[in-house]
Amino acid sequence: MLPYEVLCLFFLICLLTISSTHQTCQAVQEFAERDYMDHQQFRRIFDELDKDCIKEHPPLPQYTSATLQKLQVVFSHYYITVLGNLVALGNVMCICTILVLNSEKSTAERDNYVLEV
After folding, report:
1. How far apart, in whole angstroms, are the C-alpha atoms of residue 98 and residue 59?
2. Which residues fall within 8 angstroms of residue 114, CB to CB, at 6 or more apart?
3. Which of 11, 37, 83, 87 ranks highest by number of CB atoms within 10 Å?
4. Which residues contact 52 (CB under 8 A, 6 or more apart)?
5. Closest CA to 102 of 91, 92, 113, 88
6. Domain boundaries in the chain?
7. Which helix (H) or strand (E) segment is 49 a member of?
């Protein structure tokens, strides 16, 4: 992208971002007078844009059904998240094991049934 297009993009971000600060728009206008933008200037603008980001999870929805409320409590528990991460880790380890075992074989010797190809 040309520097002019980059600056137009920053102006558009300033105009469309509801939470953008006046200081961010001033920083963009300051760099609009130049033909280029170095790494530090670029970083400063994005740091300004990133200040207002929400760093917390949105609240859980509230259900009227007692069954749905109980399911929500059970499945939003921390241990369920840990269990899901362990299952994902096990899947990655199984895939890596199959790939390593098949990498030592020639193409004719590979068991394509295991790979389900």
Report:
1. 41
2. 98, 102
3. 37
4. 19, 20, 21
5. 113
6. 3-50, 66-115
7. helix 39-50
Which pLDDT score, from 0 to 100, does residue 88 have? 97
Distance CA 89, CA 94 (A): 9
CB-count burial class (<10 Å; 0-12, 13-18, 19+) for 10: buried
Beta-carbon count within 10 A of 49 CB = 19
3-state SS class at 99: helix
Tens digits of residue pLDDT in 82-115 = 999 999 999 999 999 988 887 887 777 766 665 5
pLDDT value at 78 more than 60: yes
Whether the Cβ atoms of residue 46 and residue 55 lie closer than 8 Å to each other: no
Name the nearest CA neighbour of 32 among 11, 15, 16.
Answer: 11
* Between 19 and 108, the higher pLDDT residue: 108
Share of residues in the chain with pLDDT > 90 (%): 25
pLDDT at 107: 72
